[in-house]
Amino acid sequence: MSANERVNFGSKIGIILASAGSAVGLGNIWRFPCEVGENGGAAFILVYILCVMFLGIPVMVSEFLIGRRSRANTGGAYEVLAPGTQWKWVGMMGVTAAFLILGYYGVVAGWTLEYMVASATGSLSESKDYTLFFNDFVGSPWKPVLYMAAFILLTHVVIVRGVKDGIEKFSKVMMPLLLLIICVLVVCSFSMPGSSEGLAFLLRPDFSKVDGKVVLDAMGQAFFSMSVGMGCLCTYASYFTRDANLVKTAGSVALIDTFVAVLAGFIIFPAVYSVPGLSPDAGPGLVFVTLPNVFQLAFKSVPWVGYIFSLMFYVLLVLAALTSTISLHEVATAYLHERFKLSRKKAATVVTLVCMTLGVFCALSFGLLNGIRLGGMTIFDLFDFVTAKLMLPLGGMFISIFTGWYLDRRIVREEVTDWGKLRIPFFGFYIFLLKFVAPVAIASIFVNELFK
Ligand code: PHE
Fold it and tell me: How far apart are CA 417 and CA 303, in angstroms?
């Protein structure tokens, strides 16, 4: 397919919402509160915001410009911009990461689907012991597999409809809906008795908690949450129109993503603190064990409010997860479609089947395959560690070196300033961040943490 025939997103708002859809996901609503809870609250959030500003945004702009300039999938983009070099491996690492992330992300997305169904049918509110409910569910030999497969299939349905009619249309409906649900939930959560303690946890930083691990976690979380470091946004940017302002788009996406993450904290922690005996550092179980408890205990006298609160929350999780799985699927589908000249439908089917297969292993690693450990980690944990803590930061580092050092400065300037039409106040600073700050910061955080 020549560059001119390639599909584009139809509007600027579509571009922002699709990219924000990729960024906003379980990373914000499930992983972020869990990291905040385990890393001591407000201080973690501050380190996180620094990572977003000085590492995440520059890398995101770079991904955008690589994608839009090459007008190719992530796997092919580096071969267009740096033909005959080894840079292609950065793209290949991105495609590999897409398969791996979708494999394990699909599992948690499947849990959200199960919890949405259980909320709707009332079986969640009937349960007495949510730890048991959760452990029974994730440890079952077929349920999580089924829900994971259903979720990836749902993703498949949107993907085969294409970029404009599938991804863009879907994001334009889902993202406003998602923001609306979040706002309603924040108001509900604030109005709970005892919520001020939860707010204090989020707003009063304790810097004695900040160490190397916290910084590595914050960086990994920033890359994961913003979907940067593996070419998701690079693939989306290959469908951007010429008139999209890359810096503004990256700024808007980062802002929406951070806003949603912090709001998710504002939903979860005040709610958790409003029920005595629940703790904010419950880890991955926070939204699946702690919150159902909150929904039930806090609304004991008015159960229908608890029912609606809980249903809305899990619908929110499903929507957020879906716009992200779509973007992961697209990375791999676009690669197979363009590289091997498969039809879009065939390419999508291959991706769906491979990810479902990986998903089976990850889903079962909470039950049947729990005994299989590598470096003490279950298959699921290993996928999470290898992608979020290794591949994304490493990808981010190479992407910044590529745009900062390798790529012709003229190309960077043309893309970022729209052929000189836009005045970009911090262009020099942006290059400085890419050349020095991002690579050095990522490398040192890595070395410090992984080899100590
Ligand atoms: N950013 C998504 C989230 O927050 C996850 C994701 C990571 C999506 C990497 C695409 C690429 O849930």
Answer: 55
Q: Find the 300 Cα to ligand 1 centroid distance in Å.
A: 35
Q: Kindly tell me the sign of the dihedral angle through the C-alpha atoms of 223, 224, 227, 232.
A: positive
Query: What pLDDT sits at residue 4?
Result: 46
pLDDT at residue 73, as a whole number: 94
Instruction: Give the closest residue to 151 by CA, choosing from 97, 101, 111, 100.
Output: 111
In sign, the C-alpha dihedral spanning 388, 228, 34, 324 is negative
CATH number at residue 175: 1.20.1740.10
| Beta carbons of 253 and 19 less than 8 angstroms apart | yes
Whole-structure pTM value = 0.92
Q: Residue 160 and residue 156: Cα distance in Å, rounded?
A: 6
Which range marks the domain in which residue 417 is found? 3-450
Closest atom, ligand 1, to C-alpha of 257 = 4
Given this model, what pLDDT does residue 399 score?
Answer: 96
Question: In angstroms, what is the span from residue 100 Cα to ligand 1's centroid?
Answer: 12
The rounded distance, in Å, linking the Cα atoms of 285 and 158 is 29
Distance of CA 126 to the CA centre of its chain: 31
Q: How many CB atoms lie within 10 A of CB 74?
A: 33
Tell me how far apart the alpha carbons of residues 289 and 373 are, in angstroms, rounded to a whole number.
24
Give ligand 1 pocket residues (Cβ under 6 A).
22-23, 25-28, 101, 224-225, 227, 230, 232, 324, 327-328
Cα 277 to ligand 1 centroid, rounded to whole Å: 32
**Which is nearest to 133 in space by CA: 268, 303, 292, 272?**
292
Q: Residue 187 phi/psi, 5° resolution?
A: -60, -45
Provide CB contacts within 8 A for 390, sequence distance 6+.
none
Q: Letter for the amino acid at 111?
A: W
Q: Can you tell me the distance from the alpha carbon of 403 to that of 63, in angstroms, rounded to the nearest whole number? A: 9
Residue ranges in the chain modelled with pLDDT below 70: 1-5, 282-283, 419-425, 449, 451-452
Q: How far apart are CA 329 and CA 66, in angstroms?
A: 19
> In this predicted structure, what is the pLDDT of residue 288?
87
Domain total of the chain = 1
- Residue 124, pLDDT score: 81
CA 336 from chain centre, in angstroms, equals 22
What is the model's pLDDT at position 1? 47
